Amino acid sequence: MPEWGMEGSAKGAAGGSTHAGTAAGRGATRSVAMGRGHWALVSSPTEVPAASAAPRPDSPVDPDAAISVRRLVRHYGAFPAVDGLDLDIARGEIFALLGPNGAGKTTTVEICEGFRKRDSGDVRVLGEDPATAGRHWKAQLGIVLQSGAGDSQLTCRELLRAQASYYPDPRDPDEVLELVGLTEKAGVRGRALSGGQRRRLDVALGIVGRPTLLFLDEPTTGFDPEARRQFWSLIRSLRDLGTTMLLTTHYLDEAEALADRVGVIARGRLVEVAVPSALGGRGSAPAVVSWTECGARRTEATQTPTALVSELAGRFGGEVPDLAVARPTLEDVYLRMIGDPA
Amino acid sequence: MTATSERTLPSVVGVCRTRAGVELKEFFRQRESVVFTLMFPVILLLIFGAVLDYDLGGGVSFTQYFMAGVIAAGILGASLQNMAIGIATERSDGTLKGLSGTPMPKSAFFVGKVVQVLVVTVAIVVILLAIGVLFYDVDLPSGTDWLTFVWVAALGSAACTLLGIAISSLARNGRSASATVTPVALVLQFISGVFFLFSAVPGWLQTVAALFPLKWMAQGLRSVFLPDALAAEEPAGSWELGRVALVLGLWCVVGLLLCVRTFRWQDRGDG
Question: Does the keyword Membrane apply (chain A) (predicted)?
């Protein structure tokens, strides 16, 4: 099962980054961590719209936010899985948490879901502390765990009906099966589904309770490209219904396609929060124009690619040979952010 | 948004009914659990009844004696082994974690498990009694013996269910629970007067067996199936029904305390 594979590699990566974390010196303040090299630019408040920046650690939790986290810390032994994380997610928003294995994504999400304890910090999810919140609070959540829902002898429809019966105002199980594309598998037992179908069943179980806030921990792991596209349109239709979503993912295109804002988590902290198009200063990074001239490849970085291209067009009197205009991809900036032990 | 939070949660009774249905389907649709828990005692009865068909004296056949033991072993399998292995499996595959993330009342989960144990236990007892009567001329209990039968089975089943739930928390996963619990159950069956006459078990092993519920369940059930004359064969020279109730009751208390203290909805190191 792909999920178990992910789990295994997550542990390996966690061990690996312990070293990086210690080497970086845990005493470094947040501003130092952000004030470095290429992405210092983006993290400075002047460059990022105020609404998309990470909250300040000394501000109080926002009880009206869907999720509000301040100074969150959680250690596993000596390893700081989450090390001073601040996050606000507005109601109605789709927020994607990006980061390598072992960066603290799942720990953060599971603290918000009420599954894990925190060592310190403040957390409010739909206005309540997940560590003490009760059944009424849980009735407003939908949770799709990374590890999935386990084996079952029950059919998809039976599982959804049972799950629906725990909630005050559930969706119709058959409609939910339709939404996730499992209508044809309604009578098939949970354990007989393929990896991708199981994941869709997990998502179905997560949304059948009509959640206000939906957690999706690596929901599309094991999906083929077609299934991912279908899943994305499902997420968009849930957003249109006003569902707030916290999504963790390894797939940058997924974050870019779905999220209103993206947070990049590395070494237990949010290193950046931005709208996908502005992440890592992508929006303001120079474009790279390249073409072929006199048999040689020429490239030029410029803030005004349109002007350069029209100049080239004039110079060549029409088509510019092998013309390409590129911005840094999300992947470029992401790899730069997580690869740098600040 | 507040409308959702104000909306009343489904009744606990309704969710209990759902959980009972889920647990019964999970059990009866899984071939391994049906064969292991339901058929194993039946096969034992068929084999032992056919092979060890001798007279214990006073016109009492070994099968009549074995009936009490195999029912006790069946109850042990339906409760302790079933709970320990089943819940450990559900914990390691994430089923329990998933449930604890829903507004399902936690009590409903345990009610579902108890219903499962109850139905499986009744099924085992009925099948074993039917086979005994049809094939081996086993004499059914009569009059107040039925009352003793019911309270010994119920109390033993309760103690073993609680213990099984507690043991599930000690195991790393379903497979390791099975690997630990199955041999222990088998050893207990050997020394508790299930397969052999308890009076034939060496004294020190009788003492060991007396620490666990199985011996007391089997002894209580022997009082139901055997003529009172055979009470003299028991270690105490009587059926000791008062002590049967006391020991099984104590195990209920111990099991409950262990459950409350150790029950986890997710894998260790996951919280």
Answer: yes
Q: Is residue B54 part of a domain?
A: yes
3-state DSSP of A260-278: CEEEEEECCEEEEEECHHH
Confidence of residue B5 (pLDDT cuts 50, 70, 90): very low
**Which residues does chain A have within 8 Å of residue B4's beta carbon, measured at their own beta carbons?**
139-140, 168-169, 210, 212
- Report the chain B residue with the minimal C-alpha distance to residue A76: B269
Asked if A151 is an interface residue toward chain B (Cβ–Cβ < 8 A), one would say yes
Q: Are residues A299 and A315 in the same domain?
A: yes
Q: State the Cα–Cα distance between residues A215 and A248, nearest whole angstrom.
A: 8
Provide the residue range defining the domain that includes B249.
13-262
In what helix (H) or strand (E) does residue A10 lie, and over which residues does it extend?
A: helix A2-24
Is A187 within the bounds of a domain?
no
Does A166 contact B at CB distance below 8 Å?
yes
Lookup: tokens for A105:
């994504």
In a domain, B205, yes or no: yes
Distance between CA atoms of residues A48 and A53, nearest Å:
6
Q: Do A162 and B8 touch (CB under 8 A)?
A: no
Closest chain A CA to residue B32: A153
Residue B90 and residue A150: Cβ atoms within 8 Å? yes
Based on the domain organization, do A221 and A321 belong to the same domain? Answer: no
| CB contacts, 8 Å: A147 with chain B | 94, 97
Q: What's the number of domains chain B is made of?
A: 1
Tens of pLDDT, residues B48-93: 888 887 888 778 888 999 999 999 999 999 999 999 999 999 999 9
Q: Would B25 be classed as within a structural domain?
A: yes
A114 contacts in B (CB within 8 Å)?
101
In chain B, % of residues over pLDDT 70: 96
Beta-ladder partners of B55: B61
**B7-46: per-residue pLDDT in tens?**
689 999 999 999 999 999 999 999 888 988 999 999 999 9
Asked whether residue A204 is domain-assigned, the answer is no
> How close is the nearest chain A Cα to the Cα of B92, in Å?
8
- Terminal C-alpha separation, chain B: 29
- Alpha-carbon distance B6 to B22, whole Å? 28
**Number of domains present in the structure of chain A:** 2
Same domain, A303 and A259: no
Q: What is the ipTM of this complex?
A: 0.89
Residue A12 has pLDDT above 70, yes or no: no
- What pLDDT, in 10s, does the model give residues A102-118? 888 999 999 999 999 99
Domain hosting A298: range is 287-326
pLDDT averaged over chain A? 81
Q: Are residues A126 and A44 in the same domain?
A: yes
* CA closest to B7 among chain A residues: A168
Distance from CA of B11 to the nearest CA of A (A): 9
In chain B, whose CA is at the least distance from the CA of A119? B271
Residue B6, domain member (yes or no): no
Q: Report pTM.
A: 0.82
Same domain, A109 and A37: yes
